Amino acid sequence: MTGKLFGTTGVRKVYGTEFDIEMALRLGKALGTYLKEGTVLMARDARTTGLMIESALAAGLMSTGVNVVRAGMVPTPTLAFGTKFHGLTAGVMITASHNPPEYTGVKFWQGDSMGFSPEREREIEAIYNSGEFKTAPWDSLGTESQIDTLVEDHISEILSRCDADTIRSREFRVVVDPGNGAASVLTPYLLRRLGCDVISLNSQPDGTFPGRPSEPDESTLGDLVNTVRATGADLGVAHDGDSDRVVFVTGKGEIIRGDRTIALLAREMLRLQSSGDDRDGTIVTTVDSSRVLDEAVANAGGRTIRTPVGDIQVAIKVRETNALLGGEACGVFIFPEFHLAPEPFLAVCRVLETMARSGESFDSLISTIPVYPLRKTKLSCPNEHKAAVMKRLTEMVPSEMEGVSDVITVDGVGVVLSDGWVLIRPSGTEPVIRITCEASTDKAVESIVAAAARLVERAIRETVG
Question: Which of 142, 376, 384, 463 is the 20 to 30 Å CA partner of 266?
């Protein structure tokens, strides 16, 4: 089991072939050696391997003299929030996020609730590969304790940061689909505290994800869409396995892309920003978000900054620029006034607040944010060949795509075209090359995606053989 350990965010690999208990133990030792001392908060999502991996990591940490506080099964944002809320040294979440059930993984969080930077991950990986771990003597081993209040702590803080009374006055009906993931223990209960009539789907934690695949998108949310329509609900809410993402569905059953929801919330936050707020109206997003976000923010008097894909990249830039809001098109929302991890639950509250204050439906509000045709696809590419394939594509794409007016190399290779844009980047979590394209018409976007896919296929063929 060799190769690069960390991906876009943390470690994420197939259990049994790419990741095992020994690796988890070594990761714990590596983290403990890096930290030297302190107390680490640990939690897991609903995956079948979670408790096992968590226990091995905890053993590794304690063997270096670092203390462990275990929080059980909670959402990733709750773990990150709890690390900051309880003043702990770091946080460890056992999760593979939205990946299929055979995957397992680990995400590390700093004491300020922000994920470990790629630089810190590289330092830990170097320790992991060296095998030179700190070994505490028998009378200086780390201790283990349990905390059972993390979800309640998180809910209480969220309620204190939203206009709960205004939301309660509307008595919204909301359908929640946690996808058998970790949000099962939080979102339905939060919404009931907000006076909502809650209808739950797939809200029993189950690491095999029997209700639907863990990633919430148009191909997996059919049951949620149908239930929203059938029950006359005001809103549908869906999460991924570890609940760092949230996807919204309108009362008419339309699944809304995350960048459109970011645009809606950014516009509202810019409108409500007080004169005493020292933030300059910056909204941070990733290179694969729709240009409609830039337009909506500019029209509201703000500005957007683009980063590579990954919530940690967004969080770093949010902190660096003192931004108002950060987010990814996949359904990540970062509210820096709360903490620096993805915060889907406060995002749900912000959407409900906007509906309650305006007296408008989510359908009506989101209709003011235009939709530009956007397509995504991916092509299989062995992890060990990704770098060579991308190097070849960096040469091919700017010279062989038609109508190129600008080249973007923030993450992978992207080009701005006369009628849209296309981004080609290696996945940090799967053995694939991803293509994202946006254009003014369906015909144009299909043509651009097809042209880009042909180039990727050729690059893979020429590189891999």
Answer: 376
